[in-house]
Please model this.
Amino acid sequence: MNEMSLLWRCTKNDYDISMSQSDEFLGRNGLSVGSLRLEGRAFLAPMAGVTDLGMRRLAQDFGAALTFSEMLDAEFYTRGDRQAAVRAQSAGINLHVVQIAGCRSQRLAEAARLAADSGAAMIDINMGCPAKRVTDGEAGSALMRDLDLAMQLVRAVVAAVKIPVSLKMRLGWDQAALNAPELARRAESEGIAMLTVHGRTRCQFYQGRADWTAIRKVREATSLPLVANGDCTSLDAARDMLRASGADAVMIGRAAMGRPWFVGQVARHIAHRPPFPSPSAEDRHVAAQQHYRTLLTIFGREKGMRQARKHLSAYAAHSQNRRADELRERLVRSENPAEVEALLGHLFEDERIAA
Model:
């Protein structure tokens, strides 16, 4: 039995049956985005430094309907920057969504074409990133302060590709300028196929609670498929988020770290399907090990080990092992791949014994 066959081995038959009933499943639980037909309504959010290829593969394998690449700077991506190319990798991803950011229409259009030619199924334009290094360059959520420029970018990207183009935004720049509904209306008129709204302003960054009710104003402003994002940390939260926002789907970010299966669990929960049990310690061990090996492969040993630390810490944080804190410290400090794999074995093996 290979590594991937261990994943879902207790629940895969049920999952395959549910997916084989495609007409019924999609009619009740799917979502159309332009020409795409999605088998589910829970997505993995684009997160810089987090949603690498390894994490996206696992989230997809565990049932995420869509996974988004890390944000790509259009300037670097179109110039052939190696790190941007790594972030855009799609091997093993069925519906590859590439998120691009920038403030120059020509560069964004070029980036969209490059991604489409490389196999992307959808392009996502970032107008929600709050990071200062992004907004200082008039990209990300800074575009919510200049909707005319934002529409120039949208028009350029939509015209550049034949695949659907989506847009991710925040509620606005600050509480005095909650212009997400206006941006949504204008984006729909320019050919955007789907909208995602994070329920905070740029000036909130990630502080406080996401305001799901405020997203409903975007729902009232547009008929496009709408995705709610921000603080979806539990199955019940996902249901509450949909009810409060009126959205069609949820996007899950930080809550998926260390548990890439969570997006698939949410997809089943909001579809009113029988839940699948949390993966066993053995399956979680396989997932964490596979993720670690993927990072070393795509980034190389040194950078891959650095990239892996946040994920290793998160896997340990969700472990039931009594020694999880101790093992987490050793995992993030180790500079030896063989030692890391051995520590992962201890993390999950001890948990299995305790169970």
About this structure: Confidence is low (pLDDT under 50) at residues 1-28. Residues 281-354 form one domain. The first strand starts at residue 31 and ends at 33.
